[in-house]
What does this fold into?
Amino acid sequence: MVKEVCTALANVPSGVILDATVGGGGHTQALLDLREDITVVGIDRDQNAIEATSTRLAKYKNRCFLQQSDFSKFENVLNNFGVKELSGFVFDLGVSSTQLDIAERGFSYKQPGPLDMRMNEKQFLTAGQVVNEYPAEKLIWILKTFGDERFAKRITTAIKKSRPITDTLHLAEVVKSAIPAPARRTGGHPAKRTFQAIRIEVNNELEQLSETLETVINWLSPKGRGVVLAYHSGEDRIVKKVFRDSESGGCICPQKLPCVCQARPTGKILNKKIIVPETAEMFSNQRSTSARLRSIERLGTNIESSS
It folds into this structure.
């Protein structure tokens, strides 16, 4: 959804845009091409992505600065580059196409690979530990919460019986065998939700997201804008809540009565309904079909960041 991201950020004030999940650099390049008065600071927890994108965007070296980091630590990166405020930000959540395409990273249920799924290969926890060592109760919770998996108990039972599970295809087959045949005929690959849930657990994705979004909105200059692309209902619920809290200032007063709790709104939601990819994009890029875009604009009164 590069076009939609650029449309949302086209009229932001001149300055710095944070690409908090730079991946292959598609959004960063489009934003740099869109406006010559825009600089992009791009971060990604995957060092391989940073190295590849640095090469791809070498011609923009005076307006593009990249650094390996979890997006939860974006303030440290901005401070390192001397950035005081942001004109915009973009978060493209989930796993990147590059990570999915490299079997050795262990994200794909269609290719043989190790049970890894680490976006930052320096971290300790791997998918193998989650699959082979987590107790049943915790594994069921993960599959239900992060994967919306209605057969979480059946899948967990199958996983326990099959331990040790050695690779991605092995895990995919175990999951497939646990799901009733009628349910396997719809909704895509039967292991999709399980792999998604394990990946989110390995990379602590949802816990980081809420606090980070709350903070990054306060980095926006007046009229600055932020865009988030979510691919999972849990992600989208967090984005929706954070944006609503920004718009209401966290007001706890009854909706039909005047606010007396001294709430201070910081943002304005730009699209009350989620924006989804155009049909042509979904047809050409199947991975985009679950994308949901939300955007917010900073109100005129600037509030200091927490840095």
